[in-house]
Amino acid sequence: MSDFWQNHKLSLIALAALVVIAFMTVIVVPETQQAVIIRNGDPVSVVNKFKPNQTYGRTGAGVWWRIPIIDRVEYIDKRVLPLDMQPQQVLSTDQLRLNVDAYARYRIIDPVKMVQTAGTVENVQSQLAPILSSVVRQELGRRSFASLLTAERGTTMQNIRKLLDTQAREYGAQVIDVRIKQADLPDGTPLQSAFDRMKTARQQEAATIRAQGRRNAQIIRAEADAQAAKIYADAYGKDPKFYDFYRAMQSYDVTFGSGTGSSQVIISPDNDYLRQFRGH
Amino acid sequence: MEKMGGLIERIALAMAGKRSPWGKGPSGDDDGSGEATPPPSGETPKGPRNPWLPGSGAGDEDGKRRSASIEDIFRHRGPGGPRSGGGGGFRLPQRPDGKSWFPLAIGAIAALWLVFTSSHIIGPREQGIVTTFGKYSSTLHPGFNMTFPWPLQHVDTENVSEFRIEQIPEGSDQRLMLTGDKNLVDLSYVVRWNIKDLKKFRFQLVDPADTVKEVAEAAMRASVAEESLDSIFSGAGRADTENAVKTRMQQVLDAYRSGIAIQGVQIKKTDPPSEVMDAFKDVTAAQQDAQGYINSAEGVAQQVLARAQGDAASFDKVYAQYKLAPEVTRQRLYYETMERVLSKTDKVVVEAPGVTSYLPLPEIKKRVEEAPNLVAGQ
Fold this sequence. Notes:
The structure holds two protein chains of two kinds.
Chain A: H1 2-7, H2 9-25, E1 26-29, E2 33-39, E3 42-47, E4 62-65, E5 71-77, E6 81-84, E7 88-91, E8 97-108, H3 111-117, H4 121-140, H5 145-149, H6 156-169, E9 173-184, H7 189-236, H8 240-257, E10 264-267
Antiparallel strand pairs in A: 1-4, 2-3, 2-5, 6-8, 7-8, 8-9
Helix pairs in contact in A: 4-6
Chain B: H1 2-16, H2 40-43, H3 56-62, H4 70-75, H5 102-118, E1 119-122, E2 126-132, E3 135-140, E4 143-146, E5 153-159, E6 164-168, E7 176-178, E8 184-195, H6 198-204, H7 208-224, H8 229-233, H9 235-255, E9 260-271, H10 277-324, H11 326-343, E10 346-349, H12 361-370
């Protein structure tokens, strides 16, 4: 070992220096990153720049080189990046409030521009976030409350995306999508009144259901009564006079015969019942 | 004991700092050349020595000092083995034939490194992405695969067919959504997804799981806002919403080129907000009540009908007999009824006319009580 070191000291040192220089020269650009090579503060080239519909394996990713010390490499994310918005209160055209939370997805398509304007992805994010808020508030504020709820369906989101995209292009970014994540009623009065409305609607529904139940019950009873009347009429209609007699007999039975209270009957001797009393 | 002695001696030497880095060790001296290391006491007065000299004894015998030569350095490296593992107190263990383990260790490490970084076993539900210096090269499929070793190539395996589950919201807290008719519903659901294109999944999105959640939330709220509260509560409306969310999510994720496939969306719970729960329960109670009213009305109706049928039937029977002998039947019925009626009542037969029309009924009652069998009148 030592003699090897003694004999090849110079070449070993040279080799080490070469390795160090190689490490300083060669850069590895992964698929997920774009590398901006900056020479004397000026971006000179971009490695693995985003191009739409690239096949992986044919992108610019891989090994690249730079001039050591002079060139600086800035790695910029090539992937789709998230942009979150602080929840915003939006006032609709009919003066109703809604808490809106949206998100955007963007990617850096011009890393050179991005490096020149914002510097880092974090800066882009912090610059775009307030723009997203204001664009969302502005666009949604032009709509009525009812259409806010279904904002996804209309052109609103497209407009917001376009507006944000125009701004984002200044930073070399492209906005892919803007979506409303949440649209809620603000706490306090609006929420409470919504609850009250739901409550009264349900109370009304309950009352209606009960009334309908009663109505149906009444109809059922009335139908039964009508049918009973028909049965009675059919039966008794055969001989109304006999019915009169027959029913009267039944009625006397119930009234005097099986009633609970004691009854006194004052009968005139002329009564038909006592006809035979007279003996003629 | 000898070994112990040697060890102590060695420690003493090391502490005295007199050992040259290339000197032979105190033990295992098997060259037998007579140049044995003198005891430390004999060496001390000699002062600083040329560290490249093999031993002090030999030098003294020669009576002169000479500079170190390569021969000196290697003199003691006979077949007995090298005594210097690189200087200082550090020595590698020796192989039986006396050669160093060092090259073997290096070789073993290199072999291990080759084996571990160039062979890859991909599980049945996994795929692996091979990158060469960061650049995508190929996708590995289940089985045994070989690549170039790290750092030339790097393999990133991922379970692609496993269904990942995102539960939204994560806790059991109430999460209210606005429906199309401006009502609020407490809704929780589960999204199942897997990876359909590992390349895109790895290289396109910063945080795929988070993206799935956000897209799900946006899609679910958009779909719920298109439905009315009642249709969300109903089973059919739920199924529609689930399908709509699934389609919507897939569209968005495809637009992001995310490589994610949504396998299903299940709505687990659709509840009214707890604040209005009582009113909703009252609706259910009202439905029960209404059914109760109808049931009891039907009971009454059955009674009424049965009674009517019974009455009519008995009338019919009697009437049939009456028709056979009207006069007699009529009179029989009359007398029988009168008998039953009058036998149970107090009877007063008044010979009209001229009898006082004032009837002291309470008086009569009293008398009846006193003499129940008394018959007033004649």
